[in-house]
Amino acid sequence: MKALHLSSDQELLVAYKQSSDRAYIGELYMRYSHMVLGLSLNYLKDRHLAKDAVMDIFEYLIKNVQKYDIDSFKSWVLMLTRNHCLKLLTRSLKKESELFDKNIDTHFVEYAQEEDHDNEDELNKLETALVTLKPHQQKCLVLFYLQGKSYDEVAQVTGFDVKKVKSYIQNGKMNLKKRMTP
To answer: Which of 7, 22, 42, 166 can bridge 11 by disulfide, Cβ–Cβ 3.0-4.6 Å?
Structure first.
C-alpha cells in the first residue's frame, strides 16, 4: 500500500478493517480531528469537555469502526461527533434538571414545614415567582407542595385529570426555575 498520507479515506478504512493496524485509523482521524474538535467546541462551549469528546470519539473509532459500512468517513465522523456532543449535553441538562427539581421540592417542603422562615429573601422570591405562574400551575403547586396533597387529591380538588395535574406541576416547576434564576 502507498504511504498513509497519500491514501484515500476509503483505502485507509479498508486497510484498517483488514489488519486492525491503528496507524490506518490514526491517519484517518488526524485528517479530521481539527473538525471534530471545532464541532465539539461549538456544541459543548468548553475546551476541556471538547478535548475529552475528541478522545472519546477516537476511542470509539478504534473499537467500533469495523462494524459500520462507511461511504464517507468525514460525514460519518462529524455525525458521530454531533451525536456524542448532544448525548453529553442531554446528560448534563438532565442532571441540572434533577438538581433543580430536588432544590424546588426541598424548598417547598421546608416552607410548608417551618414556622420560622430563616431565608426571607428566598421565600419572597419564591412567592413572587409563584404568583406570576398560570393559575392552574400555581394552584397545583400550592396544593401539592404546600398542602402536601397527592396527585389524586390535587385532581379531585381542582377537577383536572391526574395527567394534567402532573403536567401542570412539572411545567410550573420549570417556570419557577426560569423566574427565580438571575
So the answer is: 7
pLDDT single digits (tens) 69-111: 899 999 999 999 999 988 888 877 766 656 556 556 555 555 5
Q: What string of DSSP letters covers 91-120?
A: HHHHHHHHHHHHHHHHHHHHHHH-SS-S-H
What topology does CATH give the domain 114-180? Arc Repressor Mutant, subunit A (1.10.10)
Q: What is the pTM of this model?
A: 0.52
> Among residues 157, 154, 175, which one has the least CA distance to residue 166?
154
Helix intervals (H) in the chain: 9-19, 22-44, 47-64, 73-113, 120-131, 135-141, 151-158, 162-180
